[in-house]
Amino acid sequence: MTTIGQVCERLETIAPTRLAEEWDNVGLLVGNPEQTARKLMTCLTVTPATAEEAIRESVDLIVTHHPFPFHAVKRMTVETTVGRLLWNLARHQISIYSPHTAWDSAATGINQQLATGFELDEIEPLLPSEGDPDQLGAGRVGNLAQSYTLLEVVERAKNFLKIDRVQYVGDPQQPVKRVGVACGSAGSFLPTAAAANCDLLFTGETTFHTCLEAEALGIALILSGHYASERFSLEQLAAVLAGDFPDLKVWASADEEDPLVWV
Ligand SMILES: [Zn+2]
Fold first, then answer.
1. Segments in 47-139 forming alpha helices (H)
2. How remote is the CA of residue 184 from the centroid of ligand 1, in Å?
3. Nearest CA to 255 among 97, 39, 33, 56?
4. Cα(112) to centroid of ligand 1, in Å?
5. What pLDDT, in 10s, does the model give residues 214-245?
6. Measured in angstroms, how far is the CA atom of residue 66 from the centroid of ligand 1?
7. How far does residue 143's CA lie from ligand 1's centre (Å)?
8. Distances (CA, A) of 164 to 231, 244, 263
């Protein structure tokens, strides 16, 4: 018999919460660690669709990348989306755990997986956590085996993430060798990528003005969309947890979709 608490302990090893950003809200956010866990679902975000799937499938624990709830909750009524989802999940005794920025930065977390997906060598944190015993930190930076054109690296990103479209900033023929990666919405890493001599910064999404600034700095950007930059890692995390807890049924949400439709 596995408890929710034992799964939380394992998640703490995979994505130590000390790696989370100060503003973040990580760990067990809803639920009871002593409850037995039989079914575990990972997802990128708790939404009406993923909550409905969890309730339908009698899930005991949702591991959601994005914290839920994220902001302080003073009222839990069905009048708001957050209140309604919390109320319904709690009524069905579904616990919620979020690793968020701890998972972004973890040794086997999203950014490490992205760096490996780009086939980078000499991978290091883009923004090292000061004094971290494992020398981890936010984002990753590394070098391609040789110089490629931006367009070639775009193709590599699409293949790895299994998507048909990305956005990019830069000259399609410009050479790219040193690459920074930061999942989600990480345009704020542009100055850090510039300081690390990156030719390219990959992230999920950013603002128009960050795109202009990247162009002015001569740093290429590849934007995959927030969903594609992170969701793949929740499928990988489900596979890891399924291996760790053979008595649990573990899967990545089947009903979760990118709310943005790419045409
Ligand atoms: Zn995100």
1. 48-56, 81-91, 100-105, 110-117
2. 4
3. 56
4. 15
5. 999 999 999 999 999 999 999 999 999 999 99
6. 6
7. 24
8. 15, 33, 10
- 218 CA from centroid of ligand 1 (Å): 26
Phi, psi of 11 (to 5 degrees): -65, -35
What is the Å distance from ligand 1's center to 185 Cα? 7
pLDDT at residue 136, as a whole number: 87
How many residues are recorded in the chain?
Answer: 263
Ligand 1 center–CA 132 separation, angstroms: 23
Q: What is the mean pLDDT for each group of 10 consecutive residues in the chain (263 residues)?
A: 97 95 96 97 98 98 98 95 97 98 95 97 92 87 98 97 97 98 97 97 98 98 98 98 97 97 87
Neighbours of ion ligand 1 (CB under 5 A): 184, 230
- CA 146 to ligand 1 center in whole angstroms: 30
**Are 213 and 219 contacting, i.e. CB atoms less than 8 angstroms apart?**
no
Residue-wise pLDDT tens digits, 112-123? 999 999 999 999
Q: Which CATH number, 2.30.42.10, 1.25.40.10, 3.40.1390.30, 3.20.20.150, labels domain 2-102?
A: 3.40.1390.30
Span from the CA of 183 to the centroid of ligand 1 (angstroms): 7
pTM for the model: 0.95
What crossing angle do the helices spanning 81-91 and 48-56 adopt, rounded to 10°?
10
How is the chain split into domains, by residue range?
2-102, 107-228
- Ligand 1 center to residue 205 CA distance, Å? 10
From the CA of 1, how far away is ligand 1's center (Å)? 32
